[in-house]
Automatic annotation (TrEMBL), chain A:
It comes from Ancylobacter rudongensis. Signal peptide: none annotated. CDD domains: PBP2_Bug_TTT (cd07012). PANTHER family: BLR4371 PROTEIN, TRICARBOXYLATE-BINDING PROTEIN. Belongs to the UPF0065 (bug) family. This is Putative tricarboxylic transport membrane protein.
TrEMBL record, chain B:
The lineage of its organism: Bacteria, Pseudomonadati, Pseudomonadota, Alphaproteobacteria, Hyphomicrobiales. Residues 20-436 form the DUF112 domain. It holds the Pfam family TctA. It comes from Ancylobacter rudongensis. The chain crosses the membrane at residues 20-49, 61-85, 106-132, 138-159, 166-184, 196-220, 256-279, 312-339, 351-369, 389-408, 467-489. This is Putative tricarboxylic transport membrane protein. PANTHER family: TRICARBOXYLIC TRANSPORT PROTEIN. It comes from the Bacteria. Keywords: Membrane, Transmembrane, Transmembrane helix. InterPro entries: DUF112_TM.
From TrEMBL, chain C:
Signal peptide: none annotated. The chain crosses the membrane at residues 12-33, 45-67, 79-112, 118-139. This is Tripartite tricarboxylate transporter TctB family protein. The lineage of its organism: Bacteria, Pseudomonadati, Pseudomonadota, Alphaproteobacteria, Hyphomicrobiales. InterPro entries: DUF1468. It comes from Ancylobacter rudongensis. Keywords: Membrane, Transmembrane, Transmembrane helix.
C-alpha cells in the first residue's frame, strides 16, 4: 500500500517536473544540492484550528511528513487572530529571516491590511507557492421562483435598488457580491453572516433571496435540490456541475473572481532556502493526497511558484483594492 | 418505527470491536480535553483530523462525536473542583458546583453531573434518532429576528444571575457586552477598540475571560485564607436520595431545553447551559440557595450542555449545516472523507449516520461508567490542603489559556482579568453576568443588524414574525411579572428579581 | 463613613463609569448608521452610555446608602501571588514555559506559604512534568520552549 502510493507520488512529481518550465527543473535540482533545514521546521498557521486554511496546512504537513520531503521533523503552530495578522506578526517578530519556518497564507491575509493598514501581513513574508483557488457561485433556494440566472438578473434590474437580500459569509463573499452588483449596475442588499455555514442556513430557511458562496458548503444541498446554482464566477464551467453556466455566458461581464491559498517563508530568507522550499512545495502540490483534497473541496488546482506567485499576488491585490474601494 | 430498525443496524456497526474502541478513545480524549481549560473539543478534533485521513470514516466520526460530547463531561470536573471552567459550556457549573465542593459535597456535584449528563445525553440522542429531519427543518425557521429575540430574552435574564445587587449585576452584564465589541466588527470589517494592538483584532476570547474571572480570580481571593481554610471533608461521595429528588426535574428540563437550543444552528452548549441555569433559578422554590451550592444549579446546566451537544448534530446530520463551532469542524471532516453533507446524508450514507447515532448511546454509557467512580476519586483531591492546591491551579490556568491560541498576550489578559475578578469577588460584583454579556454580545449585535438589513430598516420584523414575537413577549413578561407582582403586593420588599439576603 | 470615596466598591463603580465614557467617546470614531441598519459605532455608543449611567447609579447608591462596615481580608498574600504571576508571564517569552511555571509554584510554596522545601520541590516538579507531558508531548502545543526545557 505504502509502496504503491509512494510510486504514484514519484510518478506524479516527475510528470509535474516535465510539465513545468526548465527553470522548474533547475530549481528542483538546486534544492537537492543547496540548503536544507537545520532544525525542526515550524509551520505557522495564522488561523484557528479547523478552518479551511488550517485544514490545507495540515494536509501540507501530512504530505511532508508521510513522504519524508524534509530531513527534520515538522511542528504545526496555530497563531490565530486578526485575519492572519497575529500569526504573521509572530513570524515577523520572532522568526525573522528564519529559513526553518514556513507560513500558510491565503486571500484573507491579503485583504486584512487593505481594510486595516495597521495589520501587516503579506508584506512581512516571502510567498513561495500557491496550491489552490476557491471559486464562487451564485445560489438561490431550491423553492425559489428563479430557475436561471437570466430570470434573477432581469428581476433585480426591474426592481428598485437594494431590494434583493443576499446572505454573505465573510469579506470575500461581500467582494463577490460587489463584483456581481457592479456588473449588474444595481446594488444588492448584503446581509452579512459570520461564516459560510450561517449564510447557507439563512438561504435554506428562506430568510434571504439568494447568496454567493464557495461551492464546498453547498454541494450536498445542490445534490438534494435544496439550493440551486445559477452561475459561476469564473471563466469556465465546473466539471462537477456541467449544467451551471458561467456568468459571462449569461451576458454578465464579471471578472474571474477566485480566492487563493498557499505557503510563504519569512521575509528576506536566504535565496537557497527559498529555492529549497519551492522544490518541496512543488512535490507537495503534485502529491495525490493534495490533488484529492482539492478535488474534495470542489476547488481549482493552481500551482503557481516563486516569482510567478508574487506577480499573481500583485494582480490580485489590485483587484481586491478595486472591489473594496480602497486604492493603494 | 423505521428509525428503530435503522438504529438496530447502527448498533450492529457501532458494536464491532474496532468501532467500540474508537468510541472509547473518543470519549476518553473528550474527557481529557474537557478537563484542560483552554483546549476544547474543536481543537482536539482539528489536531486528529489529518491522522484519520484514509481510515474508515465511520470509525473516525464515531471518535469525533465522542470527543464532542465527552468534553462536556470533562469540563465539569475542573469547574466543580477548582472553579476553573474546563469548557465554556461549564461556566455555570462553576458557580454552584464549586460552592458545593467547598462544603465538601464535590462528590455529589460530580455524581449528579455525570448522571444528569448521561440522562440528558441519552434523551437527546433519542431525539436525534426519532425527530432529526423534521426538527432540523423547523429550526430553519429561526432567522436573524428570532435569534435577536432569543438573545433579548437571555439578556433580560441577566438579573437572575446577578447575586445580591441587581444594579451591579446589570452593570457587569453591560460591561461584558461592551468588551464583546473589541476587535474586528464581523459585519463591516472595521476594527474597534483595539488600542492599536494586532492581537486584540479578534477580541477577547470567552474562555480566557472565564478562566481569569472564575479561576485566577478565585485563587487570588481565597489564597489569603488558604492555610486557615479547613480541608474539605469529603462526605457522601455519591448523591443522596434528597439530592436525587431535587435534581430529577432539573435534569429532565435541562435535557429538553438543551436539546432544543442545541438544534438551533447558531446557538450551542454554552447558551443552553445559561438558559438552563436561569430557568432552574426561576422555577426553584428556594432561589436564594443558588450561588451558594444548590444542586439544581449543577444538574440543570450540566444536563443541558450535554443535550445540546447531541442536539447540535441534528442540523449537521439532517441538513448539512453546522450547529456549533465543533460541528462545523466535523462537517469539514465529512468532506475530507469524500462525503457530501446535506439533506441526503441520512439516506445515502445511512450506515454511517446510524452507526454514529448508535455509538452515542454507547459513548454516553461509557462516560457514565467512567465518571461515577472518578467522581469519588476527584472529590478526594480536595482533601489536599488548599495551600498545596492553588499554585498548580494557577500553573494549569496559564498553560491552558496559552494553548487556546498559542498566545502570550492571552496570558497577560488572564492575569489582568484575574486581578479584576479578585476585586469583583472582594467587593461583591457578580462575574457571571459579565461572561453572559460577552457570550451574547456578538450574537445580539449581528442579529440586530442582520434583521434590520433584511427588513430594509423597519423594526416591525421583530413582531411580524410569530416566533420572534412570542420570544419578545416572553422577554417583556419576564420583566413585567415580577414588577407587577411586587406592585400588587406593595410591601416594603423590593420588586426586583434575584433579591436575596 | 469618612472613607466612602476610597472604598474598592466605589473604585469599581468609577472604573466602570470611565470605561463606559471611553466607549461613548470612542464610538464616534466609527460610523453610527449605514443604510438600513446600525453600523459599527452604534452599539458601542449604546453600551458605553448604559454602562456609564448604571455605574453612576451604583456609585450614588453607595454614596447615599448605608456604609457596609465589613471586615475585609488583608491584601498582602494576594498581591504577592499577583506579582508573581506578572513576573512569570513577563518571563515566559524569554526563558520558556516550564521553568517560570516551576518557579511560580516554588515561590508560592516556599515564600508565600512557608512550606517545607523538599516537599515543595517534589510537588512543583511533578506538576511541571505532568504539564509538559500533557501539553508538550500529547497535545504538541508549541509552548515557548528553550534549550533546557524538554
Amino acid at each position: 500500500m505504502t509502496v504503491s502510493r509512494r510510486d504514484l507520488m514519484l510518478g506524479a512529481a516527475a510528470s509535474a517536473c516535465l510539465l513545468s518550465s526548465g527553470g522548474g527543473m533547475l530549481r528542483a535540482a538546486n534544492a537537492q544540492s543547496g540548503w536544507a533545514p537545520t532544525r525542526d521546521v515550524e509551520l505557522v498557521i495564522p488561523f484557528a484550528a479547523g478552518g479551511g486554511s488550517d485544514l490545507l496546512a495540515r494536509v501540507v504537513g501530512k504530505i511532508i511528513v508521510e513522504e519524508k520531503l524534509i530531513p527534520q521533523s515538522l511542528v504545526l503552530n496555530n497563531r490565530p487572530g486578526g485575519g492572519g495578522a497575529v500569526g504573521i506578526g509572530y513570524v515577523a517578530a520572532s522568526r525573522r529571516k528564519d529559513p526553518n519556518t514556513i507560513i500558510l497564507i491565503n486571500g484573507t491575509t491579503q485583504i486584512t491590511p487593505i481594510l486595516n493598514p495597521a495589520a501587516r501581513t503579506l508584506s512581512e513574508v516571502q510567498p513561495i507557492m500557491n496550491f489552490m483557488l476557491d471559486d464562487f457561485l451564485l445560489f438561490v433556494n431550491g423553492d425559489s421562483k428563479y430557475k436561471t440566472a437570466q430570470e434573477l438578473i432581469a428581476d433585480i434590474k426591474a426592481k428598485p435598488t437594494k431590494t434583493f437580500n443576499f446572505s454573505t459569509g465573510g469579506t470575500t463573499d461581500i467582494m463577490a457580491i460587489t463584483v456581481f452588483s457592479r456588473a449588474l449596475g444595481k446594488d444588492i442588499n448584503p446581509v452579512n453572516f459570520n461564516s459560510g455555514g450561517e449564510s447557507l442556513t439563512a438561504l435554506l430557511g428562506g430568510h434571504v433571496d439568494g447568496t454567493i458562496g464557495n461551492p464546498l458548503e453547498f454541494m450536498g444541498q445542490l445534490a438534494s435540490g435544496k439550493v440551486r446554482a445559477l452561475g459561476v464566477f469564473r471563466d469556465t464551467r465546473f466539471a462537477a456541475m456541467p449544467d451551471v453556466p458561467t456568468l459571462k455566458e449569461v451576458g454578465l461581464d464579471v471578472p474571474n473572481f477566485q480566492m487563493w491559498r498557499g505557503i510563504a517563508v519569512p521575509k528576506d530568507v536566504d535565496p537557497a532556502a527559498q529555492l529549497y522550499w519551492q522544490g518541496v512545495m512543488e512535490k507537495v502540490a503534485a502529491s495525490p493526497t493534495m490533488k484529492k483534497y482539492i478535488a474534495d473541496n470542489v476547488a481549482t488546482e493552481a500551482p503557481i511558484v516563486g516569482a510567478d506567485f508574487v506577480a499573481f499576488l500583485a494582480a490580485q491585490e489590485k483587484l481586491y483594492r478595486g472591489l473594496l474601494a480602497k486604492p493603494a | 418505527m423505521e428509525a428503530l430498525m435503522d438504529l438496530g443496524g447502527g448498533f450492529s456497526t457501532a458494536l464491532t470491536p474496532n468501532n467500540l474502541m474508537m468510541c472509547f478513545l473518543g470519549v476518553f480524549l473528550g474527557q481529557l480535553v474537557g478537563v484542560l481549560p483552554g483546549i476544547g473539543p474543536s481543537a482536539a478534533i482539528a489536531l486528529l483530523l489529518p491522522l484519520t485521513f484514509g481510515s474508515d470514516p465511520t470509525a473516525s466520526l464515531i471518535m469525533f462525536a465522542g470527543i464532542y460530547y465527552g468534553a462536556q463531561y470533562g469540563g465539569t470536573i475542573t469547574s466543580v473542583l477548582i472553579s476553573v471552567p474546563g469548557e465554556s459550556s461549564t461556566v455555570m457549573t462553576s458557580i454552584d458546583g464549586y460552592q458545593m465542593a467547598i462544603k465538601g459535597r464535590a462528590g455529589a456535584a460530580l455524581g449528579i453531573a455525570a448522571i444528569g449528563s448521561f440522562i440528558a445525553g441519552t434523551i437527546s440522542t433519542l431525539g436525534l434518532t426519532l425527530l432529526a429531519p423534521p426538527l432540523a427543518q423547523a429550526a430553519l425557521a429561526f432567522g436573524p429576528p428570532e435569534y435577536f429575540a432569543l438573545v433579548v430574552l437571555g439578556l433580560v435574564a441577566l438579573a437572575a444571575v446577578s447575586g445580591r445587587s441587581v444594579l451591579k449585576g446589570v452593570a457587569a452584564g453591560v460591561a461584558g457586552l461592551l468588551l464583546a465589541t473589541i476587535g474586528i466588527d464581523p459585519q463591516s470589517g472595521v476594527s474597534r477598540f483595539d488600542f492599536g494592538m494586532v492581537w486584540l483584532l479578534d477580541g477577547i476570547e470567552f474562555i480566557v475571560l472565564t478562566v481569569a474571572l472564575f479561576g485566577v480570580g478565585e485563587v487570588l481571593a481565597s489564597c489569603t485564607a488558604a492555610s486557615a481554610r479547613p480541608v474539605a471533608e469529603v462526605k457522601n461521595v455519591l448523591p443522596t436520595r434528597e439530592d436525587w429528588r431535587r435534581s430529577r426535574m432539573p435534569i429532565l428540563r435541562g435535557s429538553v431545553v438543551g436539546f432544543l437550543v442545541g438544534v438551533l444552528p447558531g446557538t450551542g452548549a454554552t447558551i443552553a447551559s445559561f438558559i438552563a441555569y436561569i430557568m432552574e433559578k426561576k422555577l426553584s422554590r428556594h432561589p436564594e440557595e443558588f450561588g451558594k451550592g444548590a444542586i439544581e444549579g449543577v444538574a440543570g446546566p450540566e444536563s443541558s450542555n450535554n443535550a445540546a451537544a447531541a442536539g447540535a448534530l441534528v442540523p449537521m446530520l439532517a441538513l448539512g449545516v453546522p450547529g456549533s463551532g465543533t460541528t462545523a469542524i466535523i462537517l469539514g471532516a465529512l468532506i475530507m472523507f469524500g462525503l457530501r453533507p446535506g439533506p441526503e446524508l441520512f439516506t445515502q450514507n445511512a450506515t454511517l449516520v446510524w452507526a454514529v447515532i448508535a455509538s452515542m448511546y454507547i459513548g454516553n454509557l461509557l462516560l457514565l461508567i467512567m465518571n461515577l467512580p472518578l467522581a469519588g476519586v476527584f472529590a478526594r483531591l480536595l482533601k489536599v490542603p488548599y495551600k498545596w492546591l492553588y499554585p498548580p491551579i494557577l500553573a494549569i490556568c496559564l498553560v491552558g489559556v496559552f494553548s487556546q491560541a498559542n498566545s502570550l498576550e492571552d496570558c497577560w489578559l488572564v492575569v489582568g482579568f484575574g486581578a479584576i475578578g479578585w476585586g469583583m469577588k472582594r467587593f461583591d460584583w457578580p462575574a457571571a453576568p459579565m461572561v453572559l454579556g460577552l457570550v451574547l454580545g456578538p450574537m445580539f449585535e449581528s442579529s440586530l443588524r442582520q434583521s434590520l438589513t433584511m427588513s430594509h430598516g423597519t423594526a416591525f420584523i421583530f413582531i411580524n414574525r410569530p416566533i420572534a414575537a412570542a420570544l419578545m413577549l416572553a422577554a417583556v413578561l419576564f420583566i413585567a411579572i415580577p414588577v407587577i407582582a411586587g406592585l400588587l403586593a406593595s410591601r416594603p420588599r423590593p420588586a426586583s428579581a434575584g433579591e436575596a439576603p | 463613613m469618612k472613607h466612602r470615596l476610597l472604598t474598592g466598591d466605589m473604585g469599581f463603580a468609577v472604573g466602570w463609569a470611565l470605561l463606559g465614557l471611553y466607549w461613548m467617546v470612542g464610538a464616534f470614531d466609527y460610523p453610527l448608521w449605514s443604510g438600513f441598519a446600525p453600523d459599527s459605532g452604534f452599539l458601542p455608543l449604546v453600551y458605553g452610555t448604559l454602562l456609564f449611567l448604571l455605574s453612576v447609579a451604583v456609585a450614588l447608591s453607595l454614596w447615599f446608602g448605608e456604609a457596609e462596615e465589613e471586615e475585609r481580608e488583608p491584601l498582602t498574600k494576594s498581591l504577592l501571588v499577583l506579582a508573581a504571576l506578572v513576573v512569570v508571564v513577563a518571563s515566559l517569552g524569554f526563558i520558556g514555559f516550564l521553568l517560570p511555571v516551576f518557579g511560580l509554584m516554588m515561590f508560592i510554596y516556599l515564600y508565600v506559604e512557608k512550606l517545607p522545601l523538599l516537599r515543595s520541590a517534589v510537588v512543583a516538579g511533578l506538576v511541571t512534568a505532568s504539564l509538559a507531558l500533557v501539553f508538550v508531548h500529547w497535545l504538541s502545543i508549541p509552548l515557548p520552549l528553550v534549550t533546557w526545557d524538554f
